[in-house]
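To whoever picks this up:

The nightly regression suite flagged MaoC/PaaZ C-terminal domain-containing protein as changed. Nothing in the input moved, so I suspect the structure step. Input below, exactly as stored in the fixture:
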Amino acid sequence: MALPSFEDIEVGDALPELTHPPITRLQLALYAGASGDHNPMHVDIDFVKQAGLEDVFAHGMLGMAWLGRLVTQWVPQSALRHLEARFLDIVPVHAEVTTRGRVARKFTEDGENRVELEIENVDGEGRASISGVAVVALD
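Regenerated output under the current build:
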């Protein structure tokens, strides 16, 4: 993986977007098994309807994993210094989600050139379900 150069990066530069296929019930069931998060809100439509919702929705941590994937497809995992997220909205089954980011700030800390990224997951209408910040070290 070719690491972006600190000198070549500008505030406002966009990261290559990740567009995910529509979320399926199978994907949610597999994620529940892999993560150990078996909350019925993510896999049991009868339970969800009793709670007053229309259908199941994606695990928040699945969305956060997509944020991490966006960053680590741009730079190696070893360059990651910080990752945080704020959960804003649920992501219903069948939603199509795009993960995107942009350079928000360039700075030097602890002897490293670093870039702060604003990152988010958005649906087809541009509504954010998760927003976050990542910091990476660049040469």
